[in-house]
Amino acid sequence: MTGRYGSDKLNMWILGFAVICCVIALFVTGLPLVYLVLNTLSYALMFWAIFRALSRNTYKRYRENRRFLMLLDRVKDRQHKYFDCPKCRQPVRVPRGKGKIAITCPKCAEKFIRKS
Q: pTM for this one?
């Protein structure tokens, strides 16, 4: 495994979805098309996870995992809302439930109004 990326949080989620698809496919054997689609999807997900683990392009796999973790954090964060600055595309976090507020981008100082 020298020079290979290995496993990370994104790989664990991909393998988890593959196992879930496999288990669901066991229960829908009466519907051959659905069974085929779920089995194909589970094998494709497993292949993708193996590809990511054995990849030598570690920087690219690291960036994929980083973006996934950022997305996961946004989904888990129920107390804040995220907006992208219209000028520089910097993500800005604001508290929920404050109504219409003027947001100032910390990177480029652009001001824009959004409803939180």
A: 0.71
